[in-house]
Amino acid sequence: MADNRTQNATDASAVPATGGDTAPPTRQAGEDCSELPGEAAPGPEPSDDAAPGNSAAQASEPPTESTSNTPASAPTNAAAAAPAPPSDHPDEEPRPAFPHLMGSIGGKAFPLYLSMVATVFGTMVTAGVLGHTGTAVLAAYAMTIALYNPVSMVIQGALRGSMPFVAQNAEAPEALAPTVRDSLWLALCTGLLGGAVVAAVPLVARLIGAPAETVAAFGLFPYLMAFALLANAFQACATTLLIGLGRSKQAMTVGLVGTALSVVLVPTLVVALGLDITGAGLAMLLTALVVMAVAHALLRRGTVVNGQSLGLGSPDWSGVWHIARVGLPMGSTMLIKFGVLGLLAMAVARVGAAEAAAHQVMVTLVTFVFLPATAVGQAAVPFMARAAQAAHTTQAAQITQAARDQGDDSPGSGFGEVRRTMAAGLAVALPVIALSMLLIWVAAGPIIGVFTPDPNVSSLVTALIPVVFVVVLADGMQAMPGMGLLALKRTTPTLYTFAVCFGLLALAAFPVAAAGGLAWLWWAYALANLGLVVGQGGGFLRLTRARS
Fold it and tell me: pTM for the complete prediction?
């Protein structure tokens, strides 16, 4: 998903990239592995993200001779040798104009958006093909995917924890190699565990009393999907690293290749060769293997890690865990969100068939309209991560200089550029979401008619377009600070916020649906999303202001 032009040219223009941070550390002062304000030693401290192989002395070496022993009889020379605060450096790269920053983020986000749309389209094709093979086959497919999708979300969320580390070392291949190896080990571990869960689908179906024809229809499909999940874990590892490096066009290539293969192989094996659900499993496994190979080829040959040794090697479990503890809360939030959405579907199903159908149409609309926010959020993470890295360096130097000259420990501007980058991401994503909803409102009849010919369902959805707009706009607003917390390597506030807001929504789902039907339930959903805006936005601002 990346630009094939000069290495990270757009990203570099947005935020000065520095190479001080390296692989995930084995120790940290705070959850984000950064020093807390006011704890800096007299002189720039080495980054806690530094790899064990880097010299600590080199990392902590003062940038000038200002800290060397200066004779007391030469105060004039000492003053001349003392460095100016970083903001006064004449050679410091000026930050880009806000419109230029928006353009840089939007340019990285657009390929990601196309890839997401293509992936959704490929999934719809697979479901449509299997739907024409028989009800039992479609039911077996649905049960397998019901476990496959949540497990896949957790794996992708865990691997996303590598993004800030990769972004902060986008120009340092030696520093990136340990992070790549740690990500590969994380992909292997999570892929094996997730594959075991997916392979257990037939056993789960028997335990919950699924119909015998559904159990008989599974065949080899769950086991093929288990291997596909492992391959997809390695593919997600490489794609996440590409996004972290700002290579959104290469990441888009990975998504488009996967969609093209799926659209061709699924109908061929299922319909043309008559392999039914086993053919679908084979198609998905072959697609996963090819896409995995493409993603790793693009990573190894088209980025700065070209020529580096990127094999698994022996695991550094502390590095693997450090990536996982940043990424796992992100995956867990998706698990919470879609689990509660499933609960909402069950609650509205008790109201009536038309309401249940309208609910599904509205969820589909929200999913498509929300994609720009997801794409922009992922594209903005490298910008924010590099801004955070630069802020750490600037903050330490400013504290040292202030303590030396004025006895003042104020760190100065700090993380203002991180907040500015998040604001640029919001300025890119929210207008697209608003225009998309305006289009749906203007052309409600034809758009809703794609999903259902039922006039009752169509009228329900049309009447609730305002609440759909509030839901998706709030979702887009909370996504950017959530990605900002990922860039800061502080993702537990995201998990806590989702647990509280969607936990309350889950508790209220059935009573609210019984009292006010579909409308009240979706207003409750909107209120939960607004809670996410307050929680995630407040957490992001608190963390960045505490360091500014």
Answer: 0.73
Query: What is the rounded average pLDDT of the residues 96-119?
Result: 90
Separation CA 492–CA 497 (nearest Å): 9
Q: What is the full DSSP assignment across 95-107?
A: PPPHHHHHHHHHH
pLDDT of res. 28 = 39
Is 43's pLDDT higher than 70?
Answer: no
Residue with tokens 């299922």: 270
- Please tell me the distance from the alpha carbon of residue 319 to that of residue 24, in angstroms, as a whole number: 5
Cα distance between residue 396 and residue 36, in whole Å: 10
Query: pLDDT confidence of 5, banded at 50, 70, 90?
Result: very low
Considering only CA atoms, give the Rg of the chain: 25
How many Å apart are CA 3 and CA 249, to the nearest integer? 5
pLDDT, one tens digit per residue, over 487-516 is: 898 889 999 999 999 999 999 999 999 999
Q: What share of the chain is helix, strand, coil (3-state, %, to 5)?
A: 75, 0, 25
pLDDT of residue 396: 60
Per-residue pLDDT for 30 more than 70? no
Which of left, alpha, beta for 62 (phi over 0: left; psi -120 to 50: alpha)?
A: beta
Sign of CA dihedral 150, 110, 256, 231: negative
- The answer to whether 482 and 498 have CB atoms below 8 angstroms apart is no
**Residue ranges of the alpha helices (H) in 406-443?**
416-442
Amino acid at 435: L
Q: Are 44 and 400 in contact (CB under 8 A)?
A: yes
Token pair of 116 as six digits = 């997401």
CA distances from 501 to 158, 507, 538, 543 (A): 22, 10, 14, 20
Average pLDDT, rounded, for the chain? 79
Token pair for 208: 């919950």
Cα 18 from Cα 167, distance rounded (Å): 10
Rounded (5°) CA angle 472-474-480? 105
Q: Which residues contact 478 (CB under 8 A, 6 or more apart)?
A: 529, 532, 533, 535, 536, 537
Under a CB-based contact definition with an 8 Å cutoff, are residues 254 and 122 in contact? Answer: no
**CA-to-CA distance for 11 and 167, rounded, in angstroms?**
9
* Of residues 214 and 70, more confidently modeled: 214
Q: Residue 498 phi/psi, 5° resolution?
A: -65, -40
Which region among 130-139, 187-196, 217-226 has the lowest average model confidence (pLDDT)? 130-139
